[in-house]
Amino acid sequence: MARVALVTGGTRGIGGAISKALKEAGYDVAATYAGNDEAANKFKDETGIPVFKWDVGDYAACEQGVVDVENQVGPVDILVNNAGITKDAPLHKMSYEQWSDVLRTNLDSMFNMTRQVINGMRERGFGRIINISSINGQKGQAGIANYCAAKAGDLGFTKTVALENAKKGITCNAIAPGYVNTDLLANVPEEIMQKAILANIPLGRLGEVDEISRCVTFLAADEAGWITGSTLSINGGQYMI
Ligand code: NDP
């Protein structure tokens, strides 16, 4: 039987590419999303991947959602915590809501989701948890203290889950992408894109979603079983760590 992979925010952008790549690699894939039914239904029709709608920032919704996925697709062997949002503002102008929404979606979600699948993985003696962090969680970035705090938190979470579950056949790793060509960047003004983003990427271009998804399939494989607690930086040379 094929292993089951669950990808949060798996219907668009980086997550959409991850869902498709895992399906192509032979996994039974389930993808979640938050509210964009049009994009999710289009993705489902095009790929045949079942989609599930819930808010990954809501613990009870994650509990119920994972039960639904496991009933329909099977016990989760690979969890990709990918869903994320931005709500940018400099700290002196940031509202509590901007702070809290970003922490909830990008960091609380890691606990909310991983907590649902970890015991099953431990019982079965196999698991792969892959958390999508960000270059900005590694280096900091003006204007997005909420996002940087959440994404840095993802890295600490990753290392701890790796340590706690290392003897149970479970690996937990993070990917820290640089700037990737998705809707998440749609609101970045052109001047900032050129002068503050592209000018700082040694390879001179944004990343493409497939350049992230191929690294997820790599980490999900049996052959990656000795990699745990790592952060894979994929950023066009922008931040070398
Ligand atoms: P997109 O905005 O293109 O897609 C986001 C996906 O996450 C969508 O499927 C969306 O669902 C889902 N989502 C958002 N909020 C929630 C929620 N509360 N509950 C469930 N699902 C949710 O984002 P990207 O593909 O660009 O980003 C994916 C990940 O990569 C994020 O964690 C992001 O922080 C990270 N990242 C992105 C970078 C980039 O340059 N693009 C750089 C570094 C990291 P719906 O379609 O319903 O809205």
UniProtKB/TrEMBL annotation:
InterPro entries: Acetoacetyl-CoA_reductase, NAD(P)-bd_dom_sf, Sc_DH/Rdtase_CS, SDR, SDR_fam
Pfam families, alphabetized: adh_short_C2
One GO process term, biological-process aspect: poly-hydroxybutyrate biosynthetic process
UniProt keyword annotations, A-Z: Oxidoreductase
A GO term for molecular function: 3-oxoacyl-[acyl-carrier-protein] reductase (NADPH) activity
GO cellular component: cytoplasm
Alphabetized Gene3D superfamilies for the sequence: NAD(P)-binding Rossmann-like Domain
Annotated EC: 1.1.1.100
Domain of life: Bacteria
Signal peptide: none
Leading EC class: oxidoreductase
Protein family membership: Belongs to the short-chain dehydrogenases/reductases (SDR) family.
UniProt-listed NCBIfam families: AcAcCoA_reduct (TIGR01829), PRK12824.1 (NF009464), PRK12826.1-2 (NF009466)
Protein name: 3-oxoacyl-[acyl-carrier-protein] reductase FabG
Organism of provenance: Methyloligella halotolerans
Source taxonomy: Bacteria, Pseudomonadati, Pseudomonadota, Alphaproteobacteria, Hyphomicrobiales
